[in-house]
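I'll show a sample.
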Amino acid sequence: IQKIKEDTMKDKKKKNQNTDAQAEFAQNEEILAQEEIDIATVNQELAALQEEYTKLKDAFLRAAAEAENTKRRCQQEIEKNSKYAVSSFAKELLSVADNLQRALGAVDKETKANCGAFIEGVEMTQKELYHVFEKFGVKKVDCMGKVFDPNLERVVQEIEDADKPAGTIVAELQSAWTINDRILREAMVIVTKGGK
């Protein structure tokens, strides 16, 4: 009887151990299934985060490029404004330069002899005005004898001259001026019609 009891106890222990092992196995399978679900969820979240990162990085790079472009445009605008700020004022002073040139051109030898000091003063005034113009990038353009350039000159009259090529400037009624390589005022010229 004792032996039977012992055998029964052993069988019960084995059954309990098997039941415990089965329960533990089932629990482990459940944990694995849950972990697989968690891994899939984490992978989905990771993919979503990577996509969002890519979008944000692209947006950041575009914003940085736009900021750099805006900075460059502003710098160019500042430079342009500082270069050409005196344009209107300089353009108004060109008539003064023209009048000084006309006054000096109208002086004949007799007048020059009688009013030498006065004429010298006008010449000095003209020279100083040109010096100030040059200081601010305003320059007179010499057009005489050159071929007509529609960007720099305006034709007011054409004359026949067989000795010179067509379009050669033979007279300048008003001088051309530039400010920092930009046209401030175009010249008014007389050009040849025909010729060589």
